[in-house]
Amino acid sequence: MEVSDHTKVMIGQYQSFQQQLQNVMIQKESLKLQNLEIERALEELHASKENSAYKIVGAIMVNKSILNLKKELAESRESIDLKIKSLEKSEERLAERIKDLQTKIKEVIK
Fold first, then answer.
1. Where are the domains of the chain?
2. Of 2, 25, 43, 66, which residue is the least packed, with the fewest Cβ within 10 Å?
3. In sequence order, what are the beta bridge partners of 63?
4. Contact assessment for residue 7 and residue 105, using Cβ atoms and an 8 Å cutoff
5. What angle do CA 45, 51, 55 make, to 5 degrees?
6. How confident is the model at residue 4 (pLDDT cuts 50, 70, 90)?
7. Alpha carbon of residue 23 to chain centroid
8. pLDDT tens across 11-40, in order?
9. Residue 3 above 80 pLDDT?
10. What does the DSSP 8-state code read for residue 108?
């Protein structure tokens, strides 16, 4: 059975969307790991009796107040949460496109 050019294009799009979806999922998992690290750091800061702690900045460690570190980490966590939500929306859209193309490809190949 000969596959039409249109079907080949749809299959190419399908593969492209699958790859994009995989990339989005990898990015999302990476951000979730970063969030987990931030949570652990915040737990340590909350448990600390000290007024300051060290933060790694590039190749050096800088002494900062616990309050400033907590604020920075909270802001980072908020930023990461927004990125995760955006990636989840992209993931949903891509999954829907993949599902639609899969249906169309199956109809054409029958």
1. 5-109
2. 2
3. 54
4. yes
5. 60
6. confident
7. 9
8. 999 999 999 999 999 999 999 999 999 999
9. no
10. H
Judged by DSSP in three states, 32 sits in helix
Residue 86 tokens read as 């955006």
Dihedral sign from CA coordinates of 35, 22, 85, 92: negative
State the Cα–Cα distance between residues 88 and 68, nearest whole angstrom.
30
In this prediction, residue 1 carries a pLDDT of: 56
C-alpha to C-alpha distances, 51 to 2, 37, 48, 96, 99, nearest whole angstrom: 73, 21, 8, 50, 54
Two structure tokens written together for 42: 């915040």
Q: Tokens 């699958």, residue?
A: 18
pLDDT surpassing 80 at residue 98: yes
Q: Give the tokens for residue 23.
A: 């990339």
- What pTM was computed for the model? 0.84
Domain 5-109 = CATH 1.25.40.10:
no
- Amino acid occupying residue 36: L
